[in-house]
Amino acid sequence: MKTATITFHAAHNYGSMLQAYALQQTILNLGHENVILNLRTDKQKELYAKICNRKGGIIKKMSRIFFYFQYLHALNRKYDLFEKFLHDDLLLTREYATLHDLELADLKYDCFISGGDQIWNTSPIDFDWSYYLPFAKSGKKISYAVSMGPHAELQVFNQKKIKQYLSSYTHISVREKGTYDLVSSLVAIPVEISLDPVFLLTREDWRG
């Protein structure tokens, strides 16, 4: 089966990247093909850009460099290592910047997967509606261990749109009770709570 996952794979933090890796490896270990849809929005790129490359006027940029000066080398190396892991250890599609780009791509997979992490939390600056798979016009849509964040019930203004998008899913798996309660109240599709993807791999898998 050809599968494609969308998740916070390019967020420069250990939890996001490791859960993306773990879910992809688990799918591959099950004998299915898998790629991660390489969505990298401008907002996310700015959020995780190198200190010297972040937007702002000259005064703001110089102030930022001065404040972080003693950490610049370590922060730049950290950035480079995250990017190296991203490109060396994850199977990615070409890069997409927007939901519109994904829609134009007319992607064909047997199954689209909304991966783990807080990709259904509409609050973060790098949230995008693409994580609800509105661009997927063929194949099944499922989710695995997705979270809406610690205060899922507060997303009252987005519930109509969330319901619209999730109603086209065939299976929904979430990460915690708050997300479970909200999703269960919006759609008739059975919802289950699943382990974070990082726990799907064994100690030997991580060491390898």
Report on the structure:
This protein is an alpha/beta fold. It has one domain: Rossmann fold (3-Layer(aba) Sandwich), CATH 3.40.50. It is 39% helix and 15% strand. It has eight helices and seven strands. A five-stranded parallel sheet has the order 3-2-1-4-5. The protein has a two-stranded parallel ribbon with strand order 6-7. The longest helix has 18 residues, at 72-89. It is globular and about 55 Å long. The model has no long low-confidence stretch (mean pLDDT 91).
H/E topology pattern = EHEHHHEHEEHEHEH
Counting DSSP E segments of at least 2 residues, the number of strands comes to: 7
Strand content: 5-15%
Query: What general form does the structure show?
Result: globular
Please write the CATH class name. Alpha Beta
Q: Reading side by side through the largest sheet, how are the strands ordered?
A: 3-2-1-4-5
Q: What is the CATH architecture assignment? A: 3-Layer(aba) Sandwich
Helical proportion, percent range: 25-40%
Q: Main beta sheet, described?
A: 5 strands, parallel
CATH topology: Rossmann fold
Structural Rg: 18 Å
- How far the N terminus sits from the C terminus, by CA atoms, comes to 25 Å
* Count of alpha and pi helical runs: 8
How many domains?
1
Helix/strand-derived class?
A: alpha/beta
Average pLDDT taken over every residue: 91
Low-confidence stretches: none
